Amino acid sequence: MTQSSLGHFLWMFGGGSAQAVLKILVLMILSRLLTPAEFGLVAAALTVVALAEVFGKIGIAPSIVQTPVLTVEHIRTGVTATLVSGLIVGGIIFGLAEPIGRIYAMESLPQIVRIFALLFVLRALGLVPEALIQRESGFRALAMIMVGSYLFGYAAVAIVMAYLGFGVWSLVAGQMAQVALQSAMNIHFGGYRLRPGWDGPKFRAMLRFGLGTTLAQIGNYVALNVDYLIVGRMLGTAPLGQYSRAYLLLSQPANVIGNMADKVLFPALASIQSDNERIARAYTRVIGLTAITQVPLAIYLCVFGAEVVRVLMGGQWDGAVRPFQIMVTVLFFRTAYKFAGTLLRAKGHVYHAALLQWTYAALVAVGALIGVRWGLEGVATGTSVAIVLCFFNGAVLLNRSLGVPLSVLMLLRHAALGGFYLVVFVVVREAGRAVGLPALALLAAGGVAGIVVFMALNRFWPRALGSEREAVTSLLKKLLRR
């Protein structure tokens, strides 16, 4: 299963990496065509959409992945439930557009929210097909859907419309096109036509799992968006635009590892949900793999944060530099906390997963409210502390409920190795600035230095990298063969 999961992860990692690169390239372009206020306006609308989408899903699609024995009745009932839920939630959001605008104190927001209400129907069409692809380990197809919908949906539409002067509506149209294309591709690769049906007992069984999943997703939504609400409400649209773009940059590495691994691990762990020993080993391995990759990357992005923001987004986004540097320091924890929820869902402990997410949401809300008095840097600090506390809270929950241990010594070892990277990166940055290296050249020099440090450790001190080094080596071998 380990080798199979690594192969599946490689597809998702490749797709996630390609999408992350595309997002950064698109960000570079759009940041020069649109203003921070326009990004802030759409970011505010998307926080509403993200919450409503959670209710629209009602957890049916994950239950299809986790159900031990899946039947046609499960599938048809899931199709009906997600479509009806999407229609209801879309209608509610359409009707609440004006109150939502008043909450954010943004006059133009209701128009965008009304258009985004259609997203729930479009997304609902592809939820069950996507779950079937994931259950059947069709990760190559999922990677193609991920990249294709973003490239030919969001990127193509948003860039062309922004260039033609449509302003904020270019971002709106891009979001709509991406979701429509993604659902169409899910239906195509899912290999079946939408055929609604209904089976009451199966729906109730799916709903029991789905409600717990939905509670966890709502908690996750609050955790990921409550800081946006606080920044937008108390600091305004332009600071929200700066903050949201800083978060977008740092979230790409976390998404590539965390979200892609979640898609692979969830069905894999669900298939062995009765074997606690194998699940514990899988958790330890994935935490190690995250540490060996994310700790050096976090240090690199923090040290070269100013160059990253200026190269990717331009001078008008200098206000995003400090929040980005603060938030990216906890990149490992931002990635690794997701796996506790993955393991709990695979075991069917969805209400434990919900408790974990709601605790995280509360911590983020408190951190953002305390930090907002010091501006964006304060909010970034408060939310970063919250994510660290959430990671250790998840580790304690796993240990107490399932007996899954966390290797603190492994984390300390990688933290110590991070010191080597920090010294090298700071030396390279200061030397490069002293001789007047352009920002892009300085980023390249730092990247090369990081690779050299890893290769030196791998060659002369492999024990320092631990057993997780084997997983990295296996992934690299698979990548080279492909």
Structure commentary:
By secondary structure, this protein is mainly α. It is 86% helix and 0% strand. It contains 21 helices and no strands. The chain is globular and about 70 Å long. The two termini are 20 Å apart.
Briefly characterize the structure:
The chain has 482 residues and is an all-alpha fold.
- Distance between termini? 20 Å
Along the chain, the helix and strand elements come as HHHHHHHHHHHHHHHHHHHHH
Beta-sheet strand percentage?
A: under 5%
**For the CA atoms, what is the radius of gyration?**
22 Å
If helices are DSSP runs of H or I spanning 4 or more residues, what is the number of helices?
Answer: 21
Give unreliable regions as ranges.
Answer: none
Overall mean pLDDT stands at 81
State the total count of DSSP E strands.
Answer: 0
General shape: globular
Topology summary:
Blueprint: H1 2-33, H2 36-57, H3 60-66, H4 72-95, H5 97-104, H6 109-116, H7 119-135, H8 139-163, H9 168-190, H10 200-234, H11 237-270, H12 276-303, H13 305-313, H14 321-328, H15 331-346, H16 350-371, H17 375-402, H18 408-434, H19 439-460, H20 462-465, H21 468-481
Helix pairs in contact: 1-8, 1-11, 2-4, 2-6, 2-7, 2-10, 2-11, 3-7, 3-10, 4-6, 4-7, 4-10, 5-6, 7-9, 8-9, 10-11, 10-16, 11-12, 11-14, 11-15, 12-14, 12-15, 12-18, 12-21, 13-14, 13-19, 14-17, 15-16, 15-17, 16-17, 18-19
